[in-house]
Amino acid sequence: MERPRWRLVLLGVVLAGLTLGTARVAAEQRGRPPARGSAQAQAPEPGKGSAAGRERRQAKQAVIVGSSSVKGSFGRIIAADLERWGFAVTRRGVVSAGLARPDFRDFQRVVDEVPISQDTFAVLVYVGVNDGQSLWLRPGERGKDGKRWLSWRDPRWDEVYQRRARQLFRSICERGARHAVVMLPAAVAKPSLERKLTRIRRLQQQAARGVSCAQAIATSAGVAELRGRGKRLRLADGFHMSRLGARHAWQRVRQRASSLVAFTGAAPPGVGAAALNPLGLPGGDG
Fold first, then answer.
1. At what angle do helices 243-256 and 73-84 cross, to 10 degrees?
2. Is residue 181 within 8 Å of 250, Cβ to Cβ?
3. What is the DSSP pairing of strand 88-93 with strand 120-126?
4. Where are the domains of the chain?
5. What's the pTM?
6. End-to-end CA distance of the chain
7. Residue 122 CB partners (closer than 8 Å, separation 6+)
8. In a designed cystine with 220, which of 98, 142, 169, 186 is the match (CB 3.0 to 4.6 A)?
9. Smallest Cα–Cα separation from 121: which of 180, 174, 161?
10. Residue 125: phi, psi to the nearest 5?
11. Number of helices (H) and strands (E), helices first, in the chain?
12. Alpha carbons 196 and 173: distance in angstroms, whole number
């Protein structure tokens, strides 16, 4: 009786697999690589031979941490790209997070709790939109008068905020991350808040310059882009990003992160230029 054809095919596949496995074991025991043309010899190692490939093989983790935008579309879009590029991604977005109110949301503690080590290629930080207010001072930051609050208009505000930002970025580097990517707060549609964010962006940039592995990158080109072609880049509240706005902000970060080997080069597979720049807006320094 003739055996069914599918059984013969399956038997052939099993025997071929056993033969290949035996050849690999024998080759490894002899201290030689597998035979040329074998599946193991043909499988390319991602980025093999390039500096980018070596660095990424050594550090395959990426962390995204920040305020509610990281919890929403902005964080999801970034995570999807990083995972597509082969990173194991940890994403932590905390509503109302910032550096101004550690009594309410201690963002330094949030960052301390996410996994960062020498296996971490990059930590992407997005924070600051909630920080245009008085600072709650930790005990070590208070003066002789013991006051717990520092007004937004107080001359010391910039000094304390910049020190907190620098401490945050430095802690990421000291734990072993290769890169701390400071994604500066995006432009918002509320003029009073935008004026405050202009000050906060400047302080975050200055803080990043004093940290070895940190790089500050603009997420928008200013409020003018919010009126671009009638597209809606912010939600009705005027400061949270729409999905389109989040995609555009991440595009700018990717374009500007020239020193980060994992974020340079062509768009990920299946993502065309129109998807990355739906407004057709030019890149800039922001």
1. 50
2. no
3. unpaired
4. 8-42, 53-265
5. 0.72
6. 77
7. 62, 63, 177, 178, 179, 180, 181, 260, 262
8. 186
9. 180
10. -115, 130
11. 10, 7
12. 28
Q: Which two tokens stand for residue 107?
A: 């963002």
Tokens of 147: 């006051």
Element holding 89 (H helix, E strand): strand 88-93
| CA–CA distances in Å: residue 243 to residues 101, 141, 219 | 28, 39, 14
Residue 145 tokens, joined = 């008068």
Residues 129, 99: Cα–Cα separation, whole Å = 10
Structure tokens at 261: 């080997």
Q: Find the length of the chain.
A: 286
Q: H/E element holding 40?
A: helix 39-42
The architecture in CATH of the region 53-265 reads 3-Layer(aba) Sandwich (3.40)
- Tens of pLDDT, residue by residue, the chain (286 residues): 444 554 443 334 333 443 444 444 344 444 444 444 444 444 343 444 445 555 545 568 999 999 999 999 999 999 999 999 889 999 999 999 999 999 999 999 999 999 999 999 999 999 999 999 999 999 999 989 999 999 999 999 999 999 999 999 999 999 999 999 999 999 998 999 999 999 999 999 999 999 999 999 999 888 877 775 556 888 888 888 999 999 999 999 987 764 564 454 434 443 444 443 433 333 333 3
CB 128 within 8 A of CB 196: no
The torsion angles phi and psi of 168, rounded to 5 degrees, stand at: -60, -50
